[in-house]
Here is the input.
Amino acid sequence: MTERRRGYFITFEGLDGSGKSTQMRLFAQRLRAAGHTVVETAEPGGTRIGGAIRSILLNPKNQDLSPTAEMLLYFAARAQNVDELLLPALGRGEIVLSDRWTDSTYAYQGHGRQLGTGVVVALDRVACRGHNPDLTIWVDIDLDAGLERARARNNETGATSESRMDEQEFEFYARVREGYLELERLHPGRLRRVDGSGTPDQVAERVWSAWRGFADSHV
Ligand code: TYD
Here is the structure.
């Protein structure tokens, strides 16, 4: 990597159960082995205050959280992350990896909850102030496979007693995936779709070649 003052900001995106978190971990290991300094973060969360916001968002008792309030909380956590973690790390020339970022809000709240994407883009300008990812790895999986994996994980952890995927849930995730497809059309240079099927090692190879493709033209 040639000398550059600012580091790189790379995000991982995908449906629940896509395996993106595992892939981000494997990618971080490989970058470190190649000599890079890597900071890992996640949304919602990533900072102490973001963690407190995450617990409001993911608390099953908060079923009455309004969709707009939910969206603003995702951005509140992200704004804190920008100031506390992202900008300082980029300033040190490090590579920041985030498990989800604004593309998740675009896909889940903008498309999934049908709040519209214009408002997501506007709020991103307020919360992130133009500090957008340099590269986004979208780990794409087939809808059924993803929901199957997410359900199996919930059953293992006992996170939810209701594991039956109803039609409404399927339609929600279908809209979320549409959101990611739209982002791919809008940002073909930034967003690289990686096939999430196969073993974690197979997917990791695809992630690495997406990074190499980016690095060859940018780094
Ligand atoms: P995450 O912690 O990444 O869980 P998983 O590994 O299961 O994907 O995300 C938790 C949930 O939050 C997930 O269902 C996606 C959702 N989410 C949004 O709806 N909007 C957002 O902006 C973000 C960051 C996450």
Observations:
- The radius of gyration is 17 Å.
- The pocket of thymidine-5'-diphosphate is lined by residues 16, 21, 43-44, 74, 99-100, 104-105, 108-109 (CB under 6 Å).
